[in-house]
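Supplementary Note 2. Why include the ligand at all?

Several targets in our set were suspected to adopt different conformations when bound, so apo predictions alone were not considered sufficient. For every target with a known small-molecule partner we therefore ran a joint prediction. The input for nicotinamide-adenine-dinucleotide is given below.
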Amino acid sequence: MTSMEKSNYVAGEWVGSGDLSENRNPSDLDDLVGLYARASAQQTHDAIAAAKSALPAWSAASPQSRAEILERVGVELLARREELGALLSREEGKIISEGIGEVTRAAQLFKFYAQEALRVEGLAIASIRPGVRVEVRNEPVGVVGLITPWNFPIAIPAWKIAPALAFGNTVVFKPADLTPACGWALAEILSRSGLPAGVFNLVMGRGSVVGDIIARSSDVNAVSFTGSEATGRGIRTLVAERGGKIQQEMGGKSPLVVLDDANLENAVDCAIGGSVISTGQRCTSNTRIIATPGIYDALVEGMAARARKLVVGNALDPASQIGPVVDERQLSVNLRYIGIADGEGARRLCGGDVLDRPQRGFYLSPAVYADCTNDMVHVREEIFGPVVSVLKAADYEEALAIANDSDLGLSSGICTTSLKHAEDFKTRSTSGMVFVNLPTAGVDYHVPFGGRKASSYGPREQGRAAREFFTTSKTAYTNPL
Ligand code: NAD
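The joint prediction is reproduced in token form.
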């Protein structure tokens, strides 16, 4: 095994495999980030078995010991945020400041859930029968399978692993095959954190092998999945059929309504900052901008001017404002949708071109489309690239109707100085998260995160809401004789 080869972590041991995934830097294809072992079916079963046998002791471990371990992980992540942020940018392609920011967020999540480990509350309630006592307890849900996507390769694992461990569960974690380096680095930190063997297991590899086994195994009590809607649907069926618990966060096509009375500069900031930044590779991106007639032209012009100035380049270059697309497959998806948008009559104001840079990578200029309608394919479907579409609505009511006219409902936003419209939008939007005079991407970690409609399924993630998924309730009756 060379130092480039990274193994899986099963039952407290590092275990290699002959099947290695090449992790290449999308900013520079000559840069090999590492070779990551894809877990075999047997190794995945071993990880599940290890998590099952570690469960009784870990679920009975003192909250203080759990808190100390999680705090230790948070402290190390924070201390190494620049190094790990650079690793993240190398493997995923988001610019270095965002890479460091994401590692910082992962650290904050571990520190937050270190404290939450001490706050596993229950309820003592009077019985309807004299003399009987009733308690409602929150207990660990058991062995949890965590399946994550490539676009937030350390924050999403952190917001699943930290609460899972805090509430006494054992973990089988599968990062995205495309971005295993951050998941591996996090596993390496966890392996030195004082966790007993088997409490945390890392199984890298393909969804169709590793992920499928996690979804089907009756020894996995609960599955938390973030990824695409299509994959999510399949996993949901498998887990539900065997009676497992499931939580899912999936795609988005978030609307941002811009009313005539909006502050134009703020609206342009939100419309561009919430869409094409991060190469548009955020589930919460506001990719549908719906503007009323009095501001439409100025907004479109402002967005195009801003987008044209954005520097697309190597993610590790501090001058870059947008990094590359994550891989060749995603680049071809983006180009296919750009072709569809051109073909369905949307007006391309800028971008949508593949760019040459000194290093070989997947560079694409951010595309702004105007004169779009909500029935266009590129407006209805999630692209997951740096493409933003602007639509015109006659007034607030029509803008709201267009915003809500989507199968997806992750987040939504409105730019307005009208308190009346802001309040009404917060009430009538059919998304799980609503933003006023802010981009729809960019959330806090101590409050619930999640969408509605086809974007999400099951209990919310993050904040104190994570307890609902990672614990299960027991009602105890006592007759003290
Ligand atoms: P994906 O669905 O292709 O993969 C997600 C994970 O599922 C990966 O680990 C993958 O290996 C695994 N997987 C794939 N096939 C599987 C199978 N048959 N059984 C079990 N596991 C399987 O998604 P992606 O391309 O990695 O990520 C992009 C998608 O994620 C976008 O749709 C984006 O909107 C969504 N996303 C949503 C959120 C959110 O919180 N709502 C956050 C980030 C990303």
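The chain has a mean pLDDT of 98. The chain has two domains: 5-250+455-478, 255-436. Comparable summaries for the other entries are listed in the accompanying table.
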